[in-house]
Amino acid sequence: MEVIIEKKALLFKRTKEEVVKTALEEYLKKEIPIYISAPINALVEGLYEEDTLISDIKKRGDFGIGTFNNLDGEMVMLGGEVFQLLANGKVKIADDSMQTPFSCVTFFKADAGEEVRGEYDYQQFNELLDKCIPSKNMLYSIRIVGLFKYVRTRSVPKQDNYRPLVEVAKEQPEFVYKDIRGTMVGFYNPSFISSVNVPGYHFHFLSEDFQRGGHLLECHMSEGEIGVQHHSHMDLGLPVTFDYMTADLTRDTEKDLEKAER
Predict the structure, then answer these.
(1) Are 113 and 93 a contacting pair, CB within 8 Å?
(2) What angle do CA 208, 131, 195 make, to 5 degrees?
(3) CA 84, CA 63: separation in Å to the nearest integer?
(4) Helix or strand or coil: residue 101?
(5) What is the rounded distance in angstroms from the CA atom of residue 227 to the CA atom of residue 210?
(6) CA gap 238, 53 in Å, rounded
(7) Residue 203 bridge partners (DSSP)
(8) Which residue of 19, 67, 86, 171 has the lowest C-beta tally within 10 Å?
(9) What is the mean pLDDT of the chain?
(10) For the whole model, what pTM was predicted?
(11) Strands, E, within the chain: which ranges?
């Protein structure tokens, strides 16, 4: 990379710093943002019904995670298809007319990656991800495809509106899968946007046969590939519904979110 920069600097009679700055500016112009359909703190406070259609979020990305109105299962968007991971452990393709109270999507194209060989427990898995993240103050979409020795997931059961998420999570059914191939779809978000999106790493798992999955709680990875896409922009949707517009969202929900998500 250093040699390429030096050659371009000589060719265009510019300093190396100017070449790097120009390349960065061009990259940012082409960069695809992350789209968040509603702030996560609304979901934490029990607002489970919004008017954002699955067809709407497909216009904003081909990769992502979220949930469905009334918390009716976990969402995975992969390759432009949206999957509904139900509380009974089954997976089905979501209809475009379904709605989501929270989703986070982007058009995924990895600009960095890491090949995984050898077993990694969950702590080592997270440490490996940390090495793929150059700055904890930026946004990243992350796709991990591989063989997992152990995966533990959950999917929340369908709920009525207004029940706090931390209470719902106490009743979540959990699923354990062993020696399973699949894809982790997720994001890294800085801690300072915890009212907008889940801070830290947030993954949903979908098996290779599209039959099993859920919100990731723990995993041990055997082999695979990690793809990372860097983002310096996000677009945030604010629902135009009576419940959202009249809700009190001033409470600090970070501790409740931590309990519900981990």
Answers:
(1) no
(2) 80
(3) 14
(4) coil
(5) 20
(6) 14
(7) 186
(8) 171
(9) 91
(10) 0.86
(11) 34-36, 52-53, 63-67, 74-78, 81-85, 91-93, 99-100, 103-106, 112-120, 139-154, 174-189, 200-207, 213-231, 234-236
Clarify whether residues 161 and 67 are in a common domain: yes
Domain that holds residue 105: 34-261
Same domain, 165 and 229: yes
CA distance 59 to 100: 14
How, if at all, do strands 52-53 and 99-100 pair? antiparallel
Determine the Cα–Cα distance for residues 236 and 166; give it in Å rounded to an integer.
23
* Encoded tokens for 33: 């943002």
Distance CA 207, CA 183 (A): 6
Residue type, 75: M
Total domains in the fold of the chain: 2
Q: Write the pLDDT tens digit of every residue in 84-131.
A: 999 998 999 999 999 999 999 999 999 998 999 999 999 999 999 999
